[in-house]
From TrEMBL:
This is histidine kinase. It comes from the Bacteria. GO terms for cellular component: plasma membrane. Residues 2-120 form the Response regulatory domain. It comes from Taibaiella lutea. Keywords: Kinase, Phosphoprotein, Transferase. It holds the Pfam family HisKA.
Amino acid sequence: MTILLVDDRPENLIALQDILEQEGRTFITANSGYEALKIMLRNNEIGLIMLDVQMPEMDGFEVARLLKSNTKTKDVSIIFVTAISKEEQYVLKGFEEGAVDYLQKPLDINLTRAKVNVFEHLYNYQQQLKQSLLKVEAVKAQLERFVYTVSHDLKSPLSGIVLMVNTILYELETIERERLGEKLNIVEDASMHLAAMVDSILDYSKKSYDEQKKEEVDLNELILDIFRLLFPPTNIKLSIKGTLPTLYTRKLKLQQVFQNLISNAIKYNDKEIGLVEVACEVTDKHYVFSVKDNGAGMTEEDKWDIFSLFRKGNKTSERESSTGIGLNVMKIIVEEQGGKIWLDTVPGEGSTFYFEWEK
């Protein structure tokens, strides 16, 4: 804990610091109320102020009143140190101005140490509570991202299943038996994929990051499954450049990134013959994946802002609504895996998203 000692007499500051000196404590001294206020506004680490009441120009009561009126310093504990008599009116004035305790000069060494020890324990508890609240906020933010990604990832295959079933129902009386069988097989595959996703999400939600299992993932197979189960229009074609690696990784996370990038490549393609190309390069520490399309591309402004929360690119398709959250979530997922994500784009010619995945 950092303690601010305030007294207009240097010998009093030396004596007080000598009494309170202890491992783990840092002391800052001020010779006036004005100096104390300047120090408090510059230093966020101070946990306790030992404040002399009788000082020229600005007494301790006024210093305390000003500190308590400032949102930055209002919660710092103050102990008044004074030679004023113990009359009730002076004690009450100290508490009214924001003091949490009172010490009478000449100081009782044992009592002074005991009171400061109590406030040090309280300060440590406050710091632990602040850290706990920060962790709670971090978990809350992670949960919100998780809920978004789950709903977003389940929406695409589910929408495709509904669309395919409606098509079958519409063509039921005229469709050929062989063609009907093909469509029903697609619906079955998509349903099984959806069920597997739900199982993975449930398993993921029950475990901390360190407990989440890693598994062998054949990227060629994963990309083909994702593309097929996004039910792309017939004019959109998939190309896998070379042979993609087989990774030992957290499948759900990698699937979320690819599904969002491929889904966007399909959704925002405005060409008569659309192309989605997936490739991979290998460095010492990372796999560097790319998802390229020949769609509308983006402006320079979109390029730099596209990963910001709630930022939307130029929409060229009405097949699905956009919230502007997806790419921000993808950026967080990639960074959690020790990589980064970036974009090359040319308006009218298309975009290429690159992301690193730690080996």
